Amino acid sequence: MAAIAEVVGTEPRRHSQSYLMGWLTTADHKRIGIMYLLAATFFFAVGGLEALMIRIQLSSPGNTFVTPALYDQLFTMHGTTMIFLAVMPLFIGFINCIVPLQIGARDVAFPRLNALSLWLFVLGGILLNSSWFLGGAPNAGWFNYAPISLTPFNPGPGIDFYDIGLQLAGIGTLMTGVNFIATIINMRAPGMSLMRMPLFTWTTFITSVLILFAFPPFTVNLFLLMFDRLMGANFFNIAKGGNVLLWQHLFWIFGHPEVYILILPAFGIISEVIATFSRKTLFGYDSMVLATIAIGFLAFTVWVHHMFVDGFGPYVNSLFAITTMAIAVPTGVKIFNWIFTMWGGKIKFTTAMLFATGFIPLFVIGGISGVMLAMAPADFQYNDSYFVVAHLHYVLIGGSLMGVLAGAYYWFPKITGRLLNETLGKWHFWLLMIGFNVTFFPMHFLGLLGMPRRVATYSAAMGQAVAFWNLVATIGAFILAISFLFFFYNLFKTLRSGEQAGPDPWDARALEWAISSPAPVYNFAKTPLVRGRDAWWVEKTEGDGHLRSAEPEADPHEEHAHHGIHMPTGSIYPFLIALGLMIAGYGAIFGLLLLVAIGLVLAFFSIHRMIVDEDPGEIVQPVGGDGE
Amino acid sequence: MIGSHEMPAAHPPVSPEQAKAQDNRVLGFWIFLSGECAFFASLIGTYLSLDTHTVGTVTLASLIDLPLTGLMTLSLLSSSLTMVFAFLAMNKGELQAMKIWLWVTALLGAIFLDLQIFEFTHYMASGFTMGSSASASAFFALVGFHGLHVAFGLFWIISLLVYSFKDGITPANTSKVWIAGLYWHFVDVVWVIIFTVVYLMQKVH
């Protein structure tokens, strides 16, 4: 973290605080974003190592590299970690770092709540991963179906770690959703009308709405499971009238919007990157916005396609098959708009642009296998086979992760002030493209050959083809892992001695590029006046290359401008709330009521302070003439 | 009154940052409440899917005492009214009156909670417990989470009463009372739904 702090000029202005307290108490969206990115990158590496262990185990038939019991924990933690602790927080990191800049705001609507979101995610993630050392990790898959997640079948604490870890992280995510909806509605600079917002801000907005309505059912579901496991309730216990399908419904009412939460921000990033490096305004902006809204709406209408084999009958399955296929329409609109944006543009293939263009074919492959899976009768064949594994990795790596990496190469200079090395970046991209396709394309064949998901090994009697393609996939996984070594080395090297980026290294279009890199703590010295879509590009091409100020010279509030900028101050209480809930979580998992009490007292004392304290704010003096 | 958000006129103009912060708070809280709707919708859905699954154990219908629940409903609904009186006093700048109405609101909330604890204890003594059937589990989850919301509301209102009015009524603490009030009315509305779906429907069957 030290290396990053040196290049990120967002240190707090108070000198009385220690370095550590500065980070623990910060309410600055940029520093919170950086911590999201760092923590999520760590969890991504953990999830990646779990994936490698899975692939080593599956490299040959009848392998005994890991026991079946450990294998169950590995695939469960791989999925759970990648979805909840890696990809989603990576996006939230970028959202934190970039969205307030794109709309010309000084911070988010609720800076301290933002800190609470961060710490709930970090401490929830640590709690979940500590299960490896405290009695075994969860082992019922990332969707954790009842009844296998119930005490009779799963007496260890692993499922409780899943339950309470994700509860903490999930509440943090919910708060992020609330925060960014309010931020985008209320904090836009003058002139930044909704239909002038950059696509990344739009997709963040819709993602936040999805979070707002998708996470509460998951919260409820986790509570019901907790009551069943820890308090003897019977929601999922059939002998006492419970219903295991209740878990599936509540889970997928959350789970399907969740996968759009994982892809919509990627759509936003791809839209920014492709427009910038094609040197054209985004083709079909209005249809892009409408498609995003349509996808967000349809996300809540398709959950039963995860449950086709439950036996709801042809009418229910047909209905959900149709709504599922309907999602291909707005998604297709987006794909064509990206292609038309590039058409006739002056394309520059930087690493970010490579990832953005690479996204298109990979995501289309994942989308097509998705439509194949949406056909309910055919799904009976694909269900629970490696075909599904191939599909979900094409959309989650080929889609979401490619978006994350495009965003990483694109915004790294804005976040840190330094440009990632392009040569290493291109090695990363090409090795990733090769490794990814070599790993996951054969999984389509493996699924069609009948290989089931989530089984620790397979028999040599399944035939040579199964053994061969598994070995190929394992080799591909190592190529994929090596590509990330290039990326991590690139991050390390750039932070030590990377090229200085300057404010606008890509000659880009949105407002974040109008201010210095990294952004000053107050973002814009004067609130900018937005005069069109692609707000910064408009000033560069039609204005004088400087942002117009929205603060008039003879404003009655001008004294504020002269006396500095009012900024929110940090607070330790968000961290203490999350810490208290984490302690209470450990207490609940191990049945230590005293620990529960201590944790809850700490959490409620801190919540109380958050309720009654008024953030006085602090006055920051702008330096230089940014944003004038 | 409830739909509008007016700051008392008696105060000096606030800085644009403060005004924005208060505006954000009210908007953010409405957004949060829509998430709460999804939360209670999930619990109500769970209850409706399990409420007949009593597997031969004690049923809720055999235990319900409508006069008691009616009294609970009365106290909670009246507390919404007293919360509105607190707003009215606050908007007139009458600190003492506002505080009294907030204390009355808290008292009515406490009566509700007390009756609910009595109700739950009685049910559990009669063999209707979290573990007796899926139907009972769903009842305690839905009604219990609502009760926890009431308890948190009490904690919130009393926190504000004890700590937030040292400088009288200010723009900052007005918006705090405002969102605490929004929360309180929301919890009240949820109770109206629970009273209908859980209690009255048992008498219809």
Q: What does this protein look like?
A:
Chain A has 628 residues and is an all-alpha fold. Chain A has a single domain, classed as Cytochrome C Oxidase, Chain A. Chain A has helices spanning 2-7, 19-25, 29-57, 68-102, 111-130, 158-186, 199-231, 244-261, 264-278, 285-298, 314-326, 328-342, 351-374, 376-382, 386-416, 422-448, 464-497, 535-541, 558-562, 573-589, 593-612, and strands spanning 418-419, 499-500, 528-529, 548-549, 565-567, 618-620. Chain A is globular and about 75 Å long. The model of chain A is unreliable at 1-13 (pLDDT under 50). Chain B is elongated, with a radius of gyration of 19 Å. Helix content of chain B is 76%, strand content 0%. The relative contact order of chain B is 0.17. Chain B starts with 15 loop residues before the first helix and ends with a helix. Residues 1-10 of chain B have low confidence and may be disordered. Chain B has one domain (16-204): Up-down Bundle (Four Helix Bundle (Hemerythrin (Met), subunit A)). Chain B has 205 residues and is mainly alpha-helical.
